[in-house]
Amino acid sequence: MSGTWPPRMTRTERGNGGFTLLEVLVAMLLLVIIAGALYSSYFTVLRARERAEEGGEQRRELRGTLDLLRRELDGAFYRTSDKRLRFVVNDRDIFGKPASTLELVTVAPPSAEERPASDLVLVKYEVKEKEKRLSLNREATDLFGSMKPIPYPQMDEIEGFLVECYDSGKWVRTWNTELSPKLPERVRIILTVRDGENTADYSVTAKPRLR
């Protein structure tokens, strides 16, 4: 019998028998890289979707708050003959951010309740701070009722709440009907909210009609 025993396999013949350890390691490394890229893309899309949903909710809350303020300011009611009626704006700040307080009597919308109720409501807006975060609180009570007002957060995560009153050709940041027994000609509300890395101002201007 000619030749050597056992017969020697060539490099090509050895390769047909399976993968080498190096080839397996390279394949696993590529699989890990591809999986990491897929997971990263998935979580990026997920975070973008969550931010979009949060932004949409914030815009709805913002529109609702500004619309409520406009309607209440349009319906502001004051008469010098009744000491319970008032319109008060105080200029404050928290951490250097505007944090005005607003207190007014406004005409309430028609009530569906069976019990008789006054159509005048005492409303107060005030900025509260908790853990260096600002929120706008609102409390309302029937002017002639005995129910104690209960404050609740009208809008969370704000960056500022500024109330300005226009009268005699200028805007001022304080008003008190005990000192100036009349309503301002116009009232401007500026709400500042976080918009990504920046802040954005949204405003509404109202003209009290029941002067």
UniProtKB/TrEMBL annotation:
One of its GO terms (biological process) is protein secretion by the type II secretion system. It comes from Geobacter metallireducens (strain ATCC 53774 / DSM 7210 / GS-15). Pfam families: N_methyl, T2SSJ. One of its GO terms (cellular component) is plasma membrane. InterPro entries: N_methyl_site, Pilin-like, T2SS_protein-GspJ, T2SS_protein_J. Keywords: Cell inner membrane, Cell membrane, Membrane, Methylation, Transmembrane, Transmembrane helix. It is a single-pass membrane protein. The keyword Transmembrane applies. It comes from the Bacteria. This is Type II secretion system protein J. The chain crosses the membrane at residues 20-42. The keyword Membrane applies. Belongs to the GSP J family. It is found in: Cell inner membrane.
